Amino acid sequence: MLIDTFGRVATDLRVSLTDRCNLRCTYCMPEEGLQWLAKPELLTDDEIVRLVGIGVTALGIEEVRFTGGEPLLRPGLAGIVERCAALEPRPRMSLTTNGIGLERTAGALREAGLDRVNVSLDTLRPEVFRTMTRRDRHRDVLRGLEAARAAGLDPVKVNAVLMPGLNDGEAPDLLAWAVEQGYELRFIEQMPLDAQHGWTRDGMITAGEILASLRTRFDLTAEDEGERGSAPAERWLVDGGPARVGVIASVTRPFCRACDRTRLTADGQVRTCLFAREESDLRGALRSGAPDEEIARLWRTAMWGKKAGSGLDDPSFLQPQRPMSAIGG
Questions:
Q1: Could you give the CA distance from residue 52 to residue 86 in angstroms, rounded to a whole number?
Q2: With 80 as the cut, is the pLDDT of residue 5 above it?
Q3: Mean pLDDT for the stretch of residues 279-292
Q4: What is the count of structural domains for the chain?
């Protein structure tokens, strides 16, 4: 198992397939983009499948989430999913995406073995989408969501980040739309993972503010009180259910105590936490000919050193050098 000194066991693997993205969200990266990883630095398809296989067959990984950057930009994505779906025991597999390109790929990904998707959509207004992402692709995301639902990638979850002065008043509208469409909405507090290092605690919309806004229109009943476990989202029934809404409050209500995640970057580094400043290299071991047993040992050692928490409330906290787009969500 991937156990740490606090007794937490990692069973959820987040795999970044690329650091590239076709949007330029203001809370993630500058308009001109970033210096992307060179192709030789990226894990190959075979290396990704091998590492996922080690995680699943030797280390107790039960769920695999493919992320980015934007994972739909990864050539051969469906093949990676199909090969991972053939592992024994078969892991549950999901994808976090901005939805651009999902309209043409949802069916093939479902056929390959993908179980479900999380799609990022911060606003229902095309003009605000253009401002927040610096791209005119709002309709493409909506079509991608529709294609995911039609393909059976259920439950289709929608991730939204609220930003002051841009979409902070849209929480009730987003929830009403998600309930009508049959999507599961998750609000995510803005985290200090932007490439510009411009995040400030005073400049973010908190979980408390999100819930207060939602309650102006909806009756919310806590679903997970006392039973949240390792789930990152606190969930509420909307107007008695069955519709639900979640809030991932990584900053104001951290869930580090029950964290069950391990992360693999697109260039083969193990990260024990989104906010970690340390990484452990598995790519080097792979390419030097290390056997699976040695790679598993390196992975276990990395996770054994996982810290108790993110350290966001520590006065000495420093943002990771890598932004979210290079870490993987």
A1: 11
A2: yes
A3: 97
A4: 1
Identity of the residue numbered 248? I
pLDDT tens-place string over residues 305-315: 998 877 676 66
pLDDT at residue number 195:
66
Tell me which residue range forms the domain holding 54: 2-327
* Token pair for 234: 């606190």
| One-letter amino acid for residue 192 of the chain | P
Residue 146's alpha-carbon distances to 22, 73, 100, 128, 140, in angstroms, are 20, 19, 12, 21, 10
Whether 183 has a pLDDT exceeding 80, the answer reads yes
DSSP three-state, residue 144: helix
pLDDT in tens, 14-29: 999 999 999 999 888 8
* N- to C-terminal Cα separation, the chain: 22
Contact (Cβ atoms closer than 8 angstroms) between residue 107 and residue 138? no
Nearest 10 degrees: CA dihedral of 149, 151, 157, 161? Answer: -90
Helix axes 102-112, 77-85, angle to 10 degrees: 20
CATH number, position 25: 3.20.20.70
